[in-house]
Amino acid sequence: MFERDDAERTEEATPRKREEARKKGQVPKSRELSTAILLFSVLLFFYLFRDYYLGAFKSVFIHHLRLLGRNYTPNEVILGFLYSLGRFMIPFFIVVLTISVLSNVIQFGVVFTLEPLIPSLDRLNPFRFLDIVLSRRTWIEVLKSLLKALLVFYVVYVFLKSELLILGGFTSYTPQVVVSQLMDLLFSISFRIALLFLVLAILDYGYQKREYESSLRMTRQEIKEELRQYEGDPLVKSRMRRIMREITKRRMLREVPKATVVITNPVELAVALKYDEKEMDAPQVVAKGAGELALRIREIAREHNVPIVENRPLARALYRLVEVGDEIPQELYRAVAEVLAYVYRLKGKVK
User: Fold this and answer.
1) Cβ(263)–Cβ(273) under 8 Å?
2) Residue 272: beta bridge partners?
3) How high is the pLDDT of residue 350?
4) How far, in Å, CA of 81 to CA of 87, rounded?
5) What 3 state SS string does the chain have?
6) Confidence band of 6 (pLDDT split at 50, 70, 90)
């Protein structure tokens, strides 16, 4: 049953589903990548500033150690030491916080949601726990952990084997040189391990992104349901458009008796113009139509004694260029003025 359902999920997730998943905190992310970036950044930070921190730690330690011989209790010395240590570690904590935030922003941008914190009884379901334990994802995570452990062991083994001669020569060095050499070896092996983790984490991010895309896939039926839910049923939308057209048509036809003139094609098109020189800057199209609607405009115009003038080029231009409720463009002023002058002569007005 589940295999069949997965097989039917062949469609890419819609932008709306992606947005809903993002609001729930469901984003493509790899904890391995965040950890690897943080580990590599911390190592680099300490490598660049190790002399400063070693010197600061040494001076703070010696200073508070000397306080034990004075009138200070051990608790006061320890608290003072921790305070001083924390103060010069502030840049380190800022770096850790910044890298932690950026490592997540790089993966999925900025997401703020409290959805994952909302309690859910489904999380307490023992059967769900068994599903998680026995899921393919869980076993893949176990295999990844084993693979990382084996690779780390191999890297450490190869590195120590290559540096065995150097380690054997430490007996002839001064303590300061031994400490410096050991720190160099520690940083060297740590960088190798961090680089290994970073490569594995990048591969893991690719895997997590692919799994995320797979989890968002939809069936065709789900896409149809989403369209109905957010955009409305196509039949209902068609009916609403038809109703709106009828309302617009009736409103437009009510303006025809108020028109100054109706310009026709003569049969195919009809455009009703209204002009009041005291209130309007230019003639306005109050109604227009083609076919049956044009016939209805002419009938109403005759019923209310609105002049009808045949002018094919002008009728076509007005029908094509001017929407109902808009004034005519300047390039049609002359042609319309001639028609209005003719209408005013018919009505006995001097223009």
Assistant:
1) yes
2) 262, 287
3) 46
4) 10
5) CHHHHHHHCCECCCHHHHHHHHHCCCCCCCHHHHHHHHHHHHHHHHHHCHHHHHHHHHHHHHHHHHHCCCCCCHHHHHHHHHHHHHHHCHHHHHHHHHHHHHHHHHHHCCCCCCHHHCCCHHHHCHHHHHHHHCCHHHHHHHHHHHHHHHHHHHHHHHHHHHCHHHHHHHHHCCHHHHHHHHHHHHHHHHHHHHHHHHHHHHHHHHHHHHHHHHHHCECHHHHHHHHHHHHCCHHHHHHHHHHHHHHHHHHHHHHHHHCCEEEECCCCEEEEEECCCCCCCCCEEEEEEECHHHHHHHHHHHHCCCCEEECHHHHHHHHHHCCCCCECCHHHHHHHHHHHHHHHHHCCCCC
6) low
User: Greater confidence, 207 or 119?
Assistant: 207
Token pair in block for residue 311 = 């002018």
**Residue 351 to residues 44, 59, 309, 332, 341, Cα–Cα distance (Å):** 90, 104, 17, 18, 6
Residue 260, phi then psi, degrees to nearest 5: -85, -35
Measured in whole angstroms, how far is the alpha carbon of residue 139 from the centre of its chain? 31
Q: Please name every residue paired with 284 in a beta bridge, in sequence order, or none if there are none.
A: 274, 327
Integer Cα distance of 83 and 89 in angstroms: 10
Of 313, 343, 314, 341, give the one whose Cα is nearest residue 328: 314
pTM: 0.48
**How many residues in the chain?**
351
